[in-house]
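In the design runs reported in the main text, the only information available to the sequence generator was the tokenized backbone. The following block is the verbatim input for one such run; it is reproduced so that readers can re-run the procedure and compare outputs position by position.
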């Protein structure tokens, strides 16, 4: 239930392993689009997966929940849990779906919380269903660990499968569902629902913490003349630490890390516990999103120096291989540039339609990365798409008014930029 990011990926992958899957969404237009093969978002490999399983008739789309419930053995709830004004997760859609499921039940069902939900939600779902039906059921917590840009592979080849199940019948059925994806030895970790629910938040919070920590290290490196890349490689070689999520940049974004960090802070506060490390993580990330703008301002002698300048921006999505611009560092950067009278020419391989909806005619959206450079006074690199890593610097210099690059993702080496004649500003490197 729910054909957003989690629901559609999970549904397509479950169909790929031979299951008959019905993806239900209350949005009729979205269902019609999916039936025509139109994806609501970009995710590598997903469109092909959906098309193949639609043709094999293992995957169908419907706006009608009751029939889908009656035909199903397992029902995944994968609707949104957006942050409220205080940052806490809003589970009203999850509970509404649970109520509708209960009203349609015709026998034993396993209802799975796939949405990211606070601790205690499985018990709330259980109570909602109990009030609406006398049929037997089990409620399971099964958090997702899908990286945007690699979600299909993450589902098909998981690091681990976490199952919060408190009765053997539900556990057996969930193990059966995930058996095709764990044949290479990925552990199926069965635990109580509260532990499963917290695991999702704790995992994302830990990754966000590593990012913010390295961004602080990068900022310190700039002050003392150290090279954050050398530091990163050296600490990542420690097996206790590892190399993942140690790349400095201009802050994390997307639909998960910001929301989940906020939700865990708020949940802890409701239990009279102040999660101090996560408050620091959030504060550092907010500040880090201003770093590139500050470097641009400093280069031009202050914010007033930006008036009339043409700034090319490479990368709009919060990370490569997605069109998602939620909480993306590009958004506050572009708003700040526009506010100071700069003109922005931007390019992203996938996020241009999203950017058009966000900025309208205030930003010139280019058809290609070199098109964005035409007449630009400088280039700001915001997202580390692979096609930006080895550009034609000679061509770039001919297109730009001045050879100036502000690299928020450290794609190039300072020595390389000096050799090709660019003034180069990066993160955490002198």
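Verbatim output:
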């Amino acid at each position: 239930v729910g054909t957003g990011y989690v629901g559609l990926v999970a549904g397509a992958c479950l169909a790929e392993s031979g299951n008959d899957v019905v993806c239900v969404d209350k949005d009729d237009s979205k269902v019609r689009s999916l039936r025509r093969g139109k994806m609501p978002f970009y995710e590598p490999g997903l469109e092909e997966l959906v098309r193949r399983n639609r043709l094999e008739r293992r995957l169908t789309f419907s706006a009608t929940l009751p029939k889908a419930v009656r035909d199903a053995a397992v029902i995944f709830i994968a609707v949104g849990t957006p942050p409220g004004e205080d940052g806490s997760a809003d589970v009203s859609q999850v509970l509404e779906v649970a109520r509708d499921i209960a009203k349609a039940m015709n026998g034993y069902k396993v209802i799975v919380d796939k949405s990211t939900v606070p601790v205690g939600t499985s018990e709330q779902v259980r109570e909602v269903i109990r009030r609406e039906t006398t049929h037997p059921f089990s409620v399971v917590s099964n958090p997702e660990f899908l990286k945007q840009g690699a979600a299909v592979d993450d589902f098909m080849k998981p690091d681990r499968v976490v199952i919060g199940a408190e009765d053997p019948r539900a556990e057996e059925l969930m193990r059966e569902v995930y058996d095709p994806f764990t044949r290479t030895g990925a552990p199926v970790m069965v635990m109580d629902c509260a532990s499963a629910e917290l695991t999702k938040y704790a995992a994302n919070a830990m990754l966000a913490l590593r990012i913010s920590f390295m961004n602080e290290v990068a900022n310190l490196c700039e002050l003392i003349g150290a090279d954050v890349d050398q530091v990163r490689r050296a600490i990542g070689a420690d097996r206790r630490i590892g190399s993942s999520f140690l790349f400095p940049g201009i802050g994390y974004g997307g639909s998960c890390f910001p929301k989940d960090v906020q939700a865990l802070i708020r949940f802890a506060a409701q239990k009279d516990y102040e999660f101090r490390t996560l408050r620091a993580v959030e504060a550092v990330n907010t500040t880090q999103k201003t770093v590139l703008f500050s470097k641009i301002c400093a280069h031009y002698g202050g914010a007033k120096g930006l008036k009339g300048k043409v700034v090319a921006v490479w990368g709009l999505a919060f990370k490569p291989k997605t069109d998602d611009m939620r909480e993306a560092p590009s958004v506050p950067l572009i708003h700040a540039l526009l506010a100071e009278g700069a003109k922005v020419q931007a390019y992203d391989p996938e996020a241009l339609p999203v950017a058009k909806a966000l900025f309208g005619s205030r930003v010139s959206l280019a058809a290609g990365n070199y098109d964005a450079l035409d007449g630009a006074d400088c280039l700001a690199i915001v997202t580390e798409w692979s096609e930006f890593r080895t550009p034609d610097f000679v061509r770039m210099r001919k297109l730009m008014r001045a050879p100036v690059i502000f690299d928020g993702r450290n794609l190039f080496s300072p020595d390389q930029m000096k050799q090709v004649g660019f003034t180069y500003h990066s993160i955490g490197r002198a």
